[in-house]
Each structure stands twice: as structure tokens, then as C-alpha cells.
Amino acid sequence: MLKIATILYFLIISLSVFAGNDLEVTVKGKVIDKNARESIAGVQIKTTDGKVIGYTDLDGYFEVKINYNLVKELNFSALSYEALIMPSNALSSTLTPVELIEKQ
Known about the structure:
Blueprint: H1 2-20, E1 24-33, E2 44-47, E3 52-55, E4 61-67, E5 73-77, E6 84-87, E7 95-100
Parallel strand pairs: 1-7
Antiparallel strand pairs: 1-4, 2-3, 2-5, 5-6
């Protein structure tokens, strides 16, 4: 019985250590044109390794799940706009504004 209790104890400790490293959060925001102050639909959101994780909706809003330990930056890109790379810790679960600049 003591042996089973010891194994269970170490299993629970191990799971709690691994769970502490998993910082998956949902970040939300709205992408707008910096000068016109209008929302931008269809903005592609991807990690710095190139994995597409989402797009903005018709009103420029987005909501994506990221792991703060694995994703340090997000890349926002749209046709006729300069791409923007933002640190993931600059985004939050509340509505974060993201401003893109139109290409000249």
C-alpha cells in the first residue's frame, strides 16, 4: 500500500510540474488601419515559425490561443499593408488594438 501511495505522490507532483509550464491563453484584439482608423478584415495571424493560427473577421476582430512559453511573437499581415511583428506578451485576453500601416 505504501508503495502505491508513493508512486501516486510522485505522479501527481510530476503532472503539476508539467502543467505549470503550459501557459496557453486566449488573446483577443482588433486590427485597424493606423491612418484611416478603420478595421481590416482578413488579416493573417501567424507565429514566427510560419504557422497560421487565425484571421481577423469582417470587423477586424481576432481571437487566437497561444502558449506564452512557445510563442514569443505574432506576425500580422494583409495585402497592401506592411507586416507587423508583435511580442506575444503585448497581447492580452482583453481587446488589444493592433495597427497596420498601408504600403506606399
